[in-house]
């Protein structure tokens, strides 16, 4: 029996020092979600509320686990409450202004 391993070819694994890039997309999407939801609540615009929900979901999907979950959760809950409040004030179906 011969040993097929080659000790000269064995190299110890050294993880590379790749630093994660500072991705600002989740922060921008959370900010956009909060801005659109506040506009929706103040101006009673339904499509603003739906854009806020979309922005909050994108911000949640792109957030890292080390980020603060309170900001993501507050952005998401504010956008959901904007949708609920706008439909409670006017339960008629949403009309898209640029398609009319």
Automatic annotation (TrEMBL):
Q: Among its keywords, does the record have Transmembrane?
A: yes
Give the UniProt record's GO annotations in the biological process aspect: protein insertion into ER membrane
Check the record and name the Pfam families matching this protein.
ASTER
Q: Mind telling me what this protein is named? A: Protein Asterix
What is a single molecular function from GO for this protein?
Answer: protein folding chaperone
Q: What is its main location?
A: membrane
Give the similarity note. Answer: Belongs to the Asterix family.
The cellular component terms of Gene Ontology attached to this UniProt record, alphabetical and capped at eight, are: endoplasmic reticulum membrane
Does the keyword section mention Lipid biosynthesis? Answer: no
InterPro entries referenced in this protein's UniProt entry, alphabetically: ASTER (IPR005351)
Which UniProt keywords are present, listed alphabetically? Answer: Membrane, Transmembrane, Transmembrane helix
Q: What domain of life does the native source organism fall in?
A: Eukaryota
The entry's localization annotation reads: Membrane
